[in-house]
Structures are given as structure tokens and as C-alpha cells.
Design goal:
Layout: H1 2-14, H2 24-38, H3 47-64, H4 66-73, H5 81-98, H6 100-107, E1 123-134, E2 139-144, E3 150-155, H7 162-167, E4 176-188, E5 193-205
Antiparallel strand pairs: 1-2, 1-4, 2-3, 4-5
Helix pairs in contact: 1-5, 2-3, 2-5, 5-6
Length: 206
Amino acid sequence: MKRIMTLALIGLFAAISSPLLAQDIMDKLAEASCECISKKDVDNMSMEDLQMQLGFCIMEAVGTNQEAFQAEYGDIDYTDQAAMTKLGEKIGMKMAFKCPEYIMKMAGGQAPQGAAPAPMNAKMSMEGTLTGIEGEEVATLVIKEASGRTHKLLWMDYFEGSDQLISNPKALVGKKVSVEYETAEMYSPQMKDYVERKKVTGIKVQ
């Protein structure tokens, strides 16, 4: 993912001296990606999170417009890193003219205002409403803050307050909670890279 986003940024600057791509589908993908990232709370994201979220937005845009994309370019192989890198470059070039503020934040090598990467395994907390518990092999707690921003935190091992969730998984759903968590790196086979995730270390009902 980091490689895809890095090369997408290279493509951004190449767009200055290269003709714009003519395909309507690329315009659609760029517009969808810009709309997606504009809904994220980028001012409170670290640089790594911003890059990751933009990558997810591009993937989401491709998925939403998969039929039109396949009609133009054929089947999508998400495991083909070279192909995905090339796609990231093309969409990045279009995004440079549709939402340059987000692309330039990364191109300039500066984190969004107010953001600071959290040290790995640092203890942090958030407050919000537990809206659900997802997952099969690994459970994920879905927390919605008062601002409307939603977080998904991994439930990987025992933590204070987990007994209530084990005995009755729906016991806290819909209730306001205070969640303690730490960040941890995990390998993503889909992205073929390490990604940062939030891991629950404690939960209390407010």
C-alpha cells in the first residue's frame, strides 16, 4: 500500500508534464476517491493514516465502479502489485486536479494540522457509543464518537471489561462507553504490507 501511494504521488507530479488521461472512468474513480477522503477527519490523522485512508478510498472507488472499470480494462487482480501501482498512478494524476489539498499534504511530506503519529503500543482512549461487534475469527468493536466518526478496534485478547462482552455480546451495544486502546502493526495479505490497527485494552460503561 505504501508503495502504491508513493508511486501515485510520483504520478501526480508527472501529470504536470504529461497529457491528461482521456478515460471517463478515471475521472469517476478520482472524483469518488476525492469525495471519500473529504469525509474523513484528516486533520486528526497521522501521515501514515492519511496515506492508508486515501489508498482505501481508491480501492473503494474501484469496487463501486467495478463494472465500468472492467469494461474498459478487464478483470481486476488485487494481488498484482505492478498493476495496482499503475492504477494508483493514474487515479493520483486525476485527483491532483480534483482535490489537490489532500494530495499536496502528502506530497509536501507534512502531516495534517494537529496530527502527530502515536508511538507504537502507546495507551490512548476514546469515548463514544458501541454500535456493534463484528468479525468471525477476530472480533472488532465498532465505536461511534459524538462527532459521527466511526472507529473499528480489534478485540485480540483479554482486557478489563471484556467479561461482559463474552457472557452477553450485545450487553453494551447502544451504550456510551470509554475505550482504552493501543496501536499495533499487523500484516495485511491483501495490501501486502504492514498496516496500523487499534487494539482494545479496556472498556467501561459511562
